[in-house]
């Protein structure tokens, strides 16, 4: 019999020992945690959810957040020092970056080694308004240099949305891996993003999950996120793959 009271599952119950590979918890270098205090607040909240391992991914965005390996390393050291002082030995943080695919990124590609999530995996994003005109060239260049692009939150690029998912298939064929934002599962970025998120999951196109946490309200929402059994079954293999691939 059809039930109006379909059982719901708390997403956080499945995030125990998860490693978050996309977040803005490093202090003072992008639009995430402004200070070390804020970083700690976020980390304590993550701990309540059961997440204690992080790959921090501050923006590298020429116009707004011109981060370099040096600024990122310094922010990580500040945070690590504070964690040590607080006796938070069980928190493990590595740093990488979330690179905006713009002209400056193309130039950077020719100049220095990129910060990777692991091995050759590079987290990249694009503007929410339009894809870079030379997107294909950027993806090609990345792979010529032996990198594997991991596209952050593919579901959030409305200009790629279509029923056939053909734009996404094209990116996959061009060697992109996809990282879904956990909050897209519960419609945090809008109904369309949520629908595409589940379409991509159903097609087996999502490789990894990340939280993209910038502030505590993201974690409040994550903490309360509930899914149906069907939705949960789609996302559990992605959670497991993320854990298996990145845990350290
Ligand atoms: Fe991000």
Question: Shape from CA axes?
Answer: globular
* H and E string: EEHEEHEEHEHEHEHEHEH
Q: Can you say what the CATH homologous superfamily is?
A: Metal-dependent hydrolases
Strand-residue fraction? 5-15%
The mean pLDDT is 96
Strand numbers in spatial order across the main sheet: 4-6-7-8-9-10
Backbone structural class: alpha/beta
**Count of the separate structural domains:** 1
CATH fold-level label: TIM Barrel
> Based on the structure given, which CATH architecture is correct?
Alpha-Beta Barrel
| Tally of separate helices | 8
Give the % helix. 25-40%
Radius of gyration: 18 Å
Main sheet specs: 6 strands, parallel
Terminal CA distance? 46 Å
Question: Please, could you describe this protein's structure?
Answer:
By secondary structure, the protein is α/β, with parallel strands linked by helices. It is built from eight helices and eleven strands. The protein has helices at 36-49, 69-85, 103-111, 135-144, 166-173, 191-202, 216-223, 229-246; strands at residues 9-10, 19-20, 53-56, 59-60, 92-95, 98-100, 121-125, 148-152, 177-181, 208-210, 226-227. The protein has a six-stranded parallel β-sheet. A three-stranded parallel β-sheet has the order 2-3-5, sandwiched between helices. A two-stranded antiparallel sheet has the order 1-11. Residues 22, 24, 98, 152, 212 line the site of fe (ii) ion.
